[in-house]
Structures are given as C-alpha cells and as structure tokens.
Amino acid sequence: xxxxxxxxxxxxxxxxxxxxxxxxxxxxxxxxxxxxxxxxxxxxxxxxxxxxxxxxxxxxxxxxxxxxxxxxxxxxxxxxxxxxxxxxxxxxxxxxxxxxxxxxxxxxxxxxxxxxxxxxxxxxxxxxxxxxxxx
Length: 135
Known about the structure:
Blueprint: H1 3-8, H2 15-18, H3 29-42, H4 45-55, E1 61-63, H5 64-67, H6 75-87, E2 91-96, E3 99-104, H7 106-116
Antiparallel strand pairs: 1-3, 2-3
Helix pairs in contact: 4-6
C-alpha cells in the first residue's frame, strides 16, 4: 500500500493521519483554537528567533545561559518567551542543576508543516475573481 493510500485511509505517518491539511478539510473549532495558540507564539519576533536558535543548535538542545546574551532583554523576559513556546508545544525543557536546557519538539513542527502544505503535485484550488472586479 502506498503512502498516499494510507493517508486516504487515515493510516499514514505524520500529520496527515491525525490532522488534515488546510486544503483537504476545514479545521474544526478545537483545531483552530489550538493552532491559533501555536501561531500566536510564533507571531513574536523574539520567540521566533528563540525557536530558530534552539532548532538550529548542534546537538539538538541549548542552555538558557546561551540564549539570553543574544538579546537585549532581561532574563525574566527571555524566560517568559520560552514559557510561551513551551506552552504552545513547540519546545520542551529539562532542568540540569542551575540551568535549563531547551530542545525543539519536532512532532509539532512536522504537524504544522503538514497542515500548511499541500500534497506534492496537487494543484491549488481555482482562484475566483474578487467581488466587484471587472471580468
């Protein structure tokens, strides 16, 4: 059975199996609320930079002590931004002694990618002319 057939049957791997893409089915209210929280977390430039710094770090994790100096913000403000990313499910953390280490949650970024992408080769829906546009 192909990956495409498994996805159609709801047996595919990744985001397609549990969460349809925007082009395959409308989001229900619960999905929209959950995704809005994630996108709100990503909607701040500091949080987006923090996520990028964590995700791109060799070894897959980074100490908060290495994140804070990159910003002209106080440590409590950085901690607040990291807390919001953690609450959105984008990162996870582990305390080791005095320091906290952060790592990306790849399942969440894979899920976002699956929701926002369209299957390869599938054409975009036909565009309609805006209301009031001359034909």
